[in-house]
Amino acid sequence: MADRAEYARKGIARGRSLVVLQFADGIVFVGENPSRALHKFSEIYDRIGFAAAGKYNEYENLRIGGVRYADLRGYTYDRDDVTARGLANVYAQTLGTIFSSAAEKPYEVELVVAEVGETPEGDQIYRLPHDGSIVDEHGSVAVGGNAEQISGYLDQRHRDGMTLAEALRLAVQALSRDTNGSEREIPAERLEVAVLDRRRPQKRKFKRIVGSQLSRLLEESGGSAAAEPDEE
């Protein structure tokens, strides 16, 4: 089991890091991702977002399974019965079964499931490592790559009530730090950013931030770089 855990951790560490932060109006997902088609962040249901680091085909299978679970539960019962906690439990069972099975290799993935509440106190963030355990996170969380170093940086600087621009600046600063302590610049076109915005009047609170909107936020936060036109 120790060998399986080490195998999974090494696979996850090869992926680029991502961070999930609470801010005043919701939850923001920020990661370095040069691909415009293969997303690290996705919507699962009305108020629930999904983030993953590691092997793309494995976490994409988990994402699709989560969407199916949420749709079925919402249709069978009620939309309010679909919660991040319930989804995290489903993912934990799946990852735990795969990790303990001798018939297949463990998944090289680490997941974050987040749900935005009516108020900041109602926000929920759950981190799920490769072995299927569930960690209830508050404020900020980092997974993939040098997540431990990034988490330490965020823990010291994240605070309640941050604006979206402030949270984005903090996330980019954290992701820009290399393992040796030096910093590098991450251009806007290499960033993937999404939010769960509790202020949105629609039931669906998930929205990607791209293009000129992302550029404006980076300028507000003291960053720079041009991006492509807005997309929903």
Q: State the helicity in percent bands.
A: 25-40%
What coarse outline follows from CA principal-axis ratios? globular
Q: Given the structure, what is the number of helices? A: 6
Major sheet: arrangement of strands: 8-1-2-9-10
Order of helices and strands: HEEEEHHEEEEHHEEH
Residue ranges: pLDDT <50 for 5 or more in a row?
A: 223-232
Strand proportion: 15-25%
Strand tally is 10
Radius of gyration over all CA atoms, rounded: 17 Å
Largest sheet: 5 strands, antiparallel
Subcellular location: Cytoplasm
Pfam family, one: Proteasome
GO cellular component, one term: proteasome complex
Keywords: Cytoplasm, Proteasome
Structure description:
This protein is α+β, with helices and mostly antiparallel strands and 232 residues long. Helices cover 36% and strands 24% of the residues. A 5-stranded antiparallel sheet has the order 8-1-2-9-10. A 5-stranded antiparallel sheet has the order 3-4-5-6-7. Helix 4 (147-157) packs antiparallel against helix 5 (164-175). The longest helix has 21 residues, at 56-76. It is globular and about 50 Å long. It starts with a helix and ends in a 12-residue tail after the last helix. The model is unreliable at 223-232 (pLDDT under 50).
